[in-house]
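Researcher: Good morning. I'm working through a list of sequences from a screen, and I'd like to move beyond sequence-only analysis. For each chain I'm collecting a predicted structure so we can compare shapes side by side. This is the next one on the list. No need for commentary yet; just the structure.
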Amino acid sequence: MTEIPRERIRNFCIVAHIDHGKSTLADRLLEVTGTVSARDHRAQFLDNMDLERERGITIKAQTARMKYRAPDGDSYVLNLIDTPGHVDFSYEVSRALAACEGAVLVVDASQGIEAQTLANAYLAIDAGLEIIPVLNKIDLPSAEPDRVAREIEEVVGLDASDVLLVSAKEGKGVAELLERIVERVPAPEGDRDAPTRALVFDSWFDPYVGAVLLVRVVDGRLSVRDRVRFMATGSEREVQQLSVIEPYPCPVASLAAGEVGIVVAGLKTLAEVRIGDTITSRDGPAAEALVGFREAKPMVFAGLYPVEAEAYRDLKAALEKLKLNDSSFAYEPETSVALGFGFRCGFLGFLHGEIIQERLEREYDLDLITTAPTVRYRVVPKSGEPFEIESPAALPEPGDLDHIEEPMISATIHVPSEYVGAVLALCQDRRGTQQDMAVHGSRVQIRYRLPLGEVVTDFHDRIKSATRGYGSYDYEFMGYERAPLVKLDILVNGDMVDALSLIVHRDKAHSQGTELARKLKEFIPRQMYEVAIQAAIGTKVIARTTVKALRKNVTAKCYGGDITRKRKLLEKQKRGKRRMKKVGNVEIPQEAFLAALKLGDE
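Model: Good morning. Structure tokens for this chain:
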């Protein structure tokens, strides 16, 4: 295979808000360039996870290499990276941008600029990429290309005078987009004669070959049988296999500067590879590593426990393999009195946590219990250094505490003007502070400062339902702020269930305690004795409810006769129930742990 001249390569990604047509546009690009034959083609071709196809969202950034012949007859190689649109997967987007020189910014011609459009556009601008604005879905009757083009200029600040009008569904404007990519996106820089430097920007686990790395070669070249060193870990390996994705892996002898491809180097464990690491030659190493990625900081934490205790080792192995594929989540072992051995996992958001749990259950055939998600709080003790906690169980006794600080975010919400009132009411209810509001045509951009703990579970869904699906939001972490927070414990029959503890605002503790106790009553099965469910702050019980006992009619066989006989049987039943209560152990089903997520659903 002849080496492709560097000036004939274009590396670009597609960024947009969720549901604005990125994956459909990627399908059309693969079709028009002849990369995928009509026989092999299917909708959302690059979304190859079952979960992605079911939910209709992109979770993992995917890559494809296309060969394109320009109208002037020149041939080019275009490396396309399709990225996710949901706020929880913005880390995937930032990694994809590091491998590109250009970005196609897709905006829905009927819905206009949304929160994630803005966030992803700024990520691309910060990465110094050439941005090509595209208006998609122009075939819709509700499309307003002129209004949305003005929005792109006003809100994002990009020149939209020659914005491309595209219908990914019908294939209109796709050929013009390919021409624009070749014309506008710069060829990759890099010296092919310099020492080898390749950036690892994705990886996944293959049961046959171990860790598979997706790399962008920046300088020099990688060849099969090269001895290479991973600069962050110091690990040395031999390159066993190199491939390019066309869109199925196709083996090649070497990858030169500017190219994107797959490297298999016999890596078996997580410790040997890191996303953002630099691969260099062992014999002629580069002087310094490439700038990697800022490490993703998990924002939401939840406990994952196997239903069967014997499955703990399987869960550990599954987490190790999944971590290789998604370096933005973290985990560490944890023990719960109620649930036994498990792991405390950190995620970028609630949806990210949901996806990880579903992938563990599907891909590794595990049955899991998930505890209610919490965020990372900063604890300032009366003596000693402040420290961060990820679980309510780690909170010190109230007597040792000076105060607790909670994480704050700046949320940018885009809504049609008629729904502004509903969104403001929702943000106020979540203890938000309004920062500013700007009107762009028929849409309003609202910025709020909110506690992360208040928005972590259902805020996105609430925004969608309050705005009939037209609202969107994005957030960034702002730091910590002091707040009157308390630990809310749940006691079942006097025993504390540590997995159900929550950290809540003092003003909301009573209402949340009452509601959680009421929800648990629905899910905890009735026993032969009464089960008391209590919500408490420290030693003070603030709410209580009772699951009534099952009652067998022990006097059913007594027809008439002396009343003392009936009383004797009832007393015997009562003594048996008291004894049972002393030794009885209430089993709490998974639904009860999820009840904490559904607080306030009514």
